[in-house]
């Protein structure tokens, strides 16, 4: 057998270590691709924060709203107690509710928002939401900005809000 024929007849991976290396590399590639699919989800302890988003604001606006879902996979309730953002001077948790006269009113939730054990809370238009107050700049469609959520038990987690068009995203985005 000639030298070139022997080169083609030997196994592609000669050692067990080479085989393990290839398997680890393949798993890393798989992990990296799954992270892209989950790119708009965040975790803090037993809590999963899904698809934080906001709407673009008109020029000169001083407030914006933020929306997301929080799923508690734990056996104990937790509480969203505060929010900070790099896009505004302050951020607050608000609730839209209909009063006894049938009028929709917005009010600040000062004692935090409970996330029940095994449950989910959706911050969405017309319900609980985040108010970004004292905007430092206009929020434009396609912009991304960070916000830090602080939970009573799970601690803090920084999430990224994505701005959609003015009046956009009133449909369900749990699959993002």
UniProtKB/TrEMBL annotation:
<dbReference type="InterPro" id="IPR058248">
    <property type="entry name" value="Lxx211020-like"/>
</dbReference>
<dbReference type="Pfam" id="PF04314">
    <property type="entry name" value="PCuAC"/>
</dbReference>
<protein>
    <recommendedName>
        <fullName>Copper chaperone PCu(A)C</fullName>
    </recommendedName>
</protein>
<dbReference type="InterPro" id="IPR007410">
    <property type="entry name" value="LpqE-like"/>
</dbReference>
<dbReference type="InterPro" id="IPR036182">
    <property type="entry name" value="PCuAC_sf"/>
</dbReference>
